[in-house]
């Protein structure tokens, strides 16, 4: 009997999670996730229509890019934990995969971000081994930077893009982000 090779869109099991490619059927769960105050602080504010458009974009990215974000559910009971995965992007003229994660407020600090990130790094090694993997977050997002450290990503420096600035309200066009890279 021939062994079936994994497909990029197959669910990805981890020790505690089941990661499934995000699609339009996930809008209500994503709305719940992005409505958490801590999640909204770093990723929002979101409207329901915005979440729906983002889910549509993710479903499209899985089709066109062959990569995207997953919804993360607890393997034991199916409860929503968060989302994470990879996105193709251009970083100063270099094609890269960007790894990211978001975990529900009530579950923060339990290693789920690291578990999602580790699964994404393993997935990238299988399906896109030639592409570099990076991660970035606002310089003052200590929780995400700790996850990057746990994933053994190397600090590369500071980049500037639209984002949050510590001590100031709203988005700013030239916020400082800490850039990390997977060491080959």
Automatic annotation (TrEMBL):
State the organism of origin: Microlunatus aurantiacus
Q: What positions does the domain N-acetyltransferase occupy?
A: 16-152
Could you say which residues form the signal peptide? none
Entries under Gene3D superfamilies matching the protein: 3.40.630.30
One Pfam family assigned to this protein is Acetyltransf_3
Official protein name in the record: GNAT family protein
Q: Which InterPro entries match?
A: Acyl_CoA_acyltransferase (IPR016181), GNAT_dom (IPR000182), N-acetyltransferase (IPR051531)
